[in-house]
Design a protein that fits this description.
Length: 140
C-alpha cells in the first residue's frame, strides 16, 4: 500500500486521517544520515476517527490504551535509510496493530480435568522416580 491509507479488520482508514512526522534517524545512512529526515512517526486519531465503527473503536481504544497519547495511536519506523520505505513500514505496523485491536475476543477457556489414565500414569511415574531415588540411599 503506497499511498492509500490503511486497511485493517475490514476497516479502511483514509490517508487524510493519518498524521506524518519526520525526523533524523539514528540508524544506518552513511554521510547523509545527518541531513535526511528518514525516521517516520505515524499518528492516527483513533478516538476521533469517523471511519472506525463505534463497536470496533471502543474495543480498540481499550486494547491500545497504553499505546495512546491523547487518543492518538503512535507508530514509528526508522530501520531503513529511505523515508519512503520507513513510511511503508510504519503504515504496515499500524495496519497490523489495528488488525489485532479490532479482532474479536478469544473464546473463553473451558476448564478441563485430566483423564483418569493420565492421573494414574503421572502417579506411577512419581512412584518409579521415588523408588529409584530410594535405591541411591545408604542402606540402614
Amino acid at each position: 500500500m503506497s499511498s492509500g491509507g490503511v486497511r485493517a479488520g475490514g476497516v479502511s482508514v483514509p490517508e487524510h486521517e493519518l498524521v506524518w512526522r519526520f525526523s533524523r534517524s539514528s540508524g544506518p545512512g552513511g554521510q547523509s544520515v545527518n541531513t535526511t529526515d528518514s525516521r517516520v512517526e505515524l499518528l492516527f486519531d483513533l478516538a476521533g476517527s469517523p471511519s472506525v465503527p463505534e463497536r470496533l473503536r471502543a474495543r480498540a481504544l481499550e486494547r491500545l490504551a497504553r499505546r495512546q497519547v491523547d487518543g492518538k495511536v503512535r507508530v514509528t519506523a526508522s530501520e531503513y535509510r529511505s523515508q519512503l520505505r520507513n513510511r511503508e513500514a510504519a503504515r504496515a505496523r499500524l495496519a497490523e496493530l489495528l488488525e489485532r485491536a479490532f479482532a474479536p475476543p478469544a473464546p473463553r477457556r473451558r476448564p478441563t480435568k485430566p483423564t483418569r489414565g493420565a492421573v494414574e500414569r503421572r502417579l506411577a511415574g512419581k512412584r518409579r522416580r521415588a523408588e529409584l531415588k530410594s535405591l541411591r540411599r545408604r542402606p540402614e
